[in-house]
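Hi Prof. W.,

I finally got the Nicotinate-nucleotide--dimethylbenzimidazole phosphoribosyltransferase prediction working! I wasn't sure whether to trim anything, so I left the full sequence exactly as given:
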Amino acid sequence: MTFFATADAFTDALHSLPAPDLSASAAAEARQAQLTKPAGSLGRLEEIAVFMAQWQGNPRPRADRIAAVIFAGNHGCAVQGISAFPPEVTEQMVANFRDGGAAINALTHACGASLDVIALDLNRPTADISYGPAMSEGECLDALNSGAAAVSGECDLLLPGEMGIGNTTPAAALCAASFGGGAASWVGRGTGVDDATFARKRHLVARALVLHEQHCTSAFEALRRLGGREIVAMAGAMLAARQKRIPVMLDGFIACSAIAPLAREVPGIVDHCLAAHQSGEGAHGRLLAALRLQPLLALDMRLGEGSGAAVAAQIVRSALSAHDRMATFAEAAVAGVP
Ligand SMILES: O=C(O)c1ccc[n+]([C@@H]2O[C@H](COP(=O)([O-])O)[C@@H](O)[C@H]2O)c1
Ligand SMILES: Cc1cc2nc[nH]c2cc1C
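And this is what came out:
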């Protein structure tokens, strides 16, 4: 299905974002004030309940239908040796996701989420970003539309995840193009690369920035030139979720890099997003700060696959359970504030 027929259609969608439902959030806040606890004592759980209410347009929001979607893609620049693992691992892990043996299978089971796996042209890697644009306009639109098509309206919370050997390199390039700072600020150790590989990654990103940075004048152009199919698909899914007012749980460094060029153009694009965690990837803290998001967790995870988002989804379930199930002071006949 085509959600974004042209680059302009994508840009138009990015510039006409639905606003939150402030009457639902006001009603949720009023309920929080009546629940049997000192005001504010459930901390960020209270904020999460209000956040979910305003995006679902429901003062008693739900987290019964949580949907994880993993997008997988391969990267032309991976042939330069920028990962601790060979590119064929992307396809092998897709098989593992489908067979139920990966971390995300266990973690979606634990939080009660569904899991879809969308492999994007794995036998046709993107072009090497240090020599030219990663994708043609048509290829970038295809990836955006694959992401948007994966977002079902029947969903309370979306967990976009990714798998792509080498993808911390284009992710770093997207961050640098979006927020400045150069390659050294954004390149990290990914799957655990050695010093020589780390230096190669930095060099590759620096070259890609020289080639593309001045042409990244829109979110679409940054995604097309520096992204990868799974990264672009996540961006499409995050924008489509916003159009449907579905809240999104952002995972780690690569998932957050997908929204970075969109946030540079329209900072409010992250308003329907929670940040699940601060990944062990070195620059993720800087990226979250640039996006003005505060992570819910810091568990030194750096797996990807939507794994951090699935763990943090349990916190959302806890927040909404408290919001929905607790008695009010009146119901429980507990003396409230005089
Ligand atoms: O989510 C993260 O923060 C994260 C940090 C480092 C690595 N990863 C995962 O590892 C792969 C990319 O690492 P690399 O070293 O191949 O660029 C890719 O499949 C990601 O899902 C994920
Ligand atoms: C085994 C493996 C699993 C992954 N899951 C996400 N990225 C990954 C990278 C590797 C190498």
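Residues 85, 89, 93, 163, 191, 303-305 surround 5,6-dimethylbenzimidazole (ligand 2) (CB under 6 Å). Does that look reasonable to you?

Thanks,
D.
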